[in-house]
Amino acid sequence: xxxxxFYDLEGTLVSTNLVHTLGFYAKNQQGLFRTIKKSATxxxxxxxxxxxxxxxxxxxxxxxxKRYRGESEDRLRFFAEExxxxxxxxxxxxxxxxxxxxxRSLGLRQVIVTGALDxxxxxxxxxxGIDDYVTNRLEFVNGVATGRLLPPVVAAAxxxxxxxxxxxxxxxxxxxxxxxxxxxxxLPMLSVVGHPAAVNPDMRLKQTALHHDWPIxxxx
Amino acid sequence: xxxxxxRKTHESVIYxxxxxxxxxxxxxxxxILEDLPIGTRVIYPKPPIKGLPNREAAIRYALxxxxxxxxxxxxxxxxxxxxxxxxxxxxxxxxxxTPDIRQTVLEIVCEMLAGHGVDxxxxxxxxxxxxxxxEWEMKRMAGSKIFDEFYPDRYYNHDxxxxxxxxxxxxxxxxxxxxxxRRCAESDLVIYVNINLxxxxxxxxxxxxxxxxxxxxxxxxxxxxxxxxDSYMDPARSELNHKIVRLGKLVDxxxxxFHIETAINNRMYTGALDFLHKNEDDFTSFDRxxxxxxxxxxxxxxxxxxxxxxxxxxSQYEMIACHAGRxxxxxxxxxxxxxxQYAIPIKGQCDILITGIPDISPYNxxxxxxxxxxxxMALGYHFNFYRGxxxxxxxxxxxxxxxxxxxxxxxxxxxxxxxxxxLLPETRDAFVLRDKYxxxxxxxxxxxxxxxxGNAYHGAHPFxxxxxxxxxxxxxxxxxxxxxxxxxxxxxxxxxxxxxxxEAIAMARSYMGRSAxxxxxxxxxxxxxxxx
Lengths: 220, 532
Known about the structure:
The complex is a heterodimer of chains A (about 220) and B (about 525). Chain A has helices spanning about 20-25, 30-55, 55-65, 75-80, 80-90, 95-105, 120-130, 155-170, 185-190, 205-210; strands spanning about 5, 110-115, 130-135, 140, 145-150, 180, 195-200, 215. In chain A, helix 1 (about 20-25) packs antiparallel against helix 2 (about 30-55), helix 2 runs antiparallel to helix 3 (about 55-65) and helix 5 (about 80-90) crosses helix 7 (about 120-130). Chain A is globular. The model of chain A has no long low-confidence stretch (mean pLDDT about 90). Chain A has ten helices and eight strands. In chain A, the strands form two sheets. Chain A has a six-stranded parallel β-sheet with strand order 3-2-1-6-7-8. Chain A has a two-stranded antiparallel ribbon with strand order 4-5. Chain B has two domains: about 1-45 and about 345-530, 2-enoyl-CoA Hydratase, Chain A, domain 1 (Alpha-Beta Complex); about 55-265, Rossmann fold (3-Layer(aba) Sandwich), CATH 3.40.50. Chain B is built from 20 helices and 20 strands. Chain B has a seven-stranded mixed β-sheet with strand order 1-4-19-14-16-17-18, sandwiched between helices. A six-stranded mixed β-sheet of chain B has the order 7-6-5-10-11-12, sandwiched between helices. A three-stranded parallel β-sheet of chain B has the order 13-20-15. The model of chain B has no long low-confidence stretch (mean pLDDT about 95).
């Protein structure tokens, strides 16, 4: 039976996280004043983002994506390529290519399950040769972001349920599948596959991986 | 009776008498004192052969007076591409006191290469599917001078999973493939620097195994080859060796290899631990004091600290021979010298073989001797330390002494954990394991990455450890793990357990009979029972 390798993206395959993307857009605002204002508020919000992420990924998402409110869709799409070239491409971990290549050579479907935004990661998916991915999507009204995400919000348990649905739809064996993530918040995603692995893990995930005897990879 | 027991057949063979002292046995990170039944034969390592007085001179002499080859200096010319390959951290055991023999050889060879205008020089550690050595270990092995000059671009570990770094050399007439480190295969000259610890090491194994990939290795690292090796410490009767020689001939056809092999004596420890090599009947008061001191200190420490302490004690081996030139004649000379040091003439097999398992193995340097490694030390290495026929009779009982704790090193042995917990409960049949699971583990992307970018043993390595015990497993009637602190580890390995050695001997006697002959290997020892 066919199987897949499911990857989280940020922190797992690339060293950047959602805040880097937000920061990039913040410094590419229309006009100097808006750029300074947006960059400053993003910087000042970092401790709040960090704290809420520790508390709950859902609360973090609600708070974090509000920062996109008022951004035009055209502008976000326009800068996506530049974001990839300047921020994401250099941030790909050296080991990420090897890991994906090895998995692909085994005939595993390569699937990225990320909480990042669709328009910011499309060029990266092409670069990594990934055809299957699921991301978060911003809600736009009249071409302007509302600061909310379209459901389903890809985070924590929803990643696991998306993987289950995807596997069922595509006829994949989850017990023969692999999952890679760096964060404790993705524990549900690791729990649904037969071959979970912690990649560049945070302290909590590292302890969990040690406890469960999961492989711990360092792609840096 | 007494007189007969005291009659010495060899300086390394002692019989336990009524007034014999209890024997010291290693059991993991501990040392225990055990009274053995009267009549038990205890085999000690031979006294160490005196080391060569001038190591540097001996190496230089070997380079200038090689076997079946031009001297090294005569093979060098400016602009040539040279690769020096060296044995990894699995040799010798424990890691030797600095300067390591490899450091001395490397310094001499690199100086010679520089003197002949050879600048394109790489140093590659022939670790094959072993874990890659850490930066600190590499520096310790090669010394600061070599390390600073070559690391990291020109001094690195072999990577058996790097497709671009490998090249197919061909296959033997028996269809055994050989894929080799590209840098070595494309060099004008490969210089291999070896340390021979046991007769299985060195020779064609150095290049043909140390620098190959998984597919090449699985042609001979498989259960039937091990079953057909009687033993794999006896090159003449080792099927494993025969296969490797075939591959080595292929290497000789395609590559220019200049082999530098060294033999060392068996002076594993001096100073605080030198009593481990002594007959307990000859212990001085100072020896007893040292033993009790160490035992008492160890008993106060947690296991991890005990392990750390033992691993911090380097071995004190001395070089007893160095030969250079073409692989086969060089290796013959070194094996001859190794047998001079290790071979102990033994008359008669035993019914019960006792061996303590020390925290020393090629695969747990600075790490944990996990259950699979306990298995490989008992049924692999200790069982195979014979020439002619096994020390233990067919169907006899092997008693090993080790706590058999269920501990694994997550960085070094990640695939061992899955092998032990997922596969062994399903089957212990080496052939089934190989057919059903070996490739899955070998290709597991997580294990591949951990091998390549971390310091993990290759995903397939636990299988090789299991196969390594295959001829022992087929030969023995029963294995008893004395001192095992849990029941499930021995059970998973297919063994019985006993609380202590006395109980284990009683169990073994109930199986083999009251008159069963007992032999104990006095560990730590590197010795070959040369069976008459």
